[in-house]
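Could you show me just one protein sequence together with its fold in token form as a worked example?
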Amino acid sequence: MNGCSLCPLNCNADRSNGKGACNADDKIKIAKYYLHPFEEPVISGKNGSGTVFFCGCSLKCVFCQNYEVSRNQRGKYVSEKELADIFRFLEDNGAANINLVSPTQYSDKIIGALKLYKPKIPVCYNTHGYEKVEIIDLLTDFVDIFLPDMKYVSPERSLRYSGVKNYFEYAYPAIGKMISSKPCVLGADGLLKQGVIVRHLILPQNLDETKKVLTALKQIIGDAYLSLMSQYTPFGELKYPELKRKITLREYQTAVDFARAQGFEKVFLQEFSSQGTEFIPKWDF
């Protein structure tokens, strides 16, 4: 891959001869695939979401729980054919959908795999939100459900915590494109067949940023769902003091109340029991 421009970093790396800014070369690398039970109920269903965790990431979130994978410190290489076979395997084992986690740096390869085998169940693109509209546009023929994060509005906060100043500049229109492209469709089984769930992870001592995110998101939310996540769990040697604790019930309730005041109608809330390292996947490769 010469001159990579799949993500907003536009690092222009020759990933056939090394790694891009995402820490990934031009070969697909994964850390795990399995039936994941801990997504929103309309995604996990009874059997779990057929989840594939990809290695590498365009962001450098200081609080990343999957850092071994996002920093590409482990994993195994698979071909497009092998990835397509994984999709088929998960589908055959009862997955509610195929759930592609941190896929941005392999979006072209994923399209290649989906051309080899398009599952009969929905395909979910589970992303940090730092995407380019033109890439989302290419994905709409292959992806049924988008699961983007909406992390920040402020350039200062996105630089401090995720290493990029222009997060909102790219995430906001990209998420808008996802929402306009995929109106929500629920099946008779209560599972999402098409649509968008926008996730926001509430960080400790960052309610001001949460309110900015929700205010901006309300302008484009359409019929998409909002998922307010309470699962933030500090670990390791965190650089910033404000991130060294879990969020409080008061912080979470304040965010929920603000979302309701903004008029959000389709909102997933998360139990506080979701906080903890036991919910971080154990990597297979």
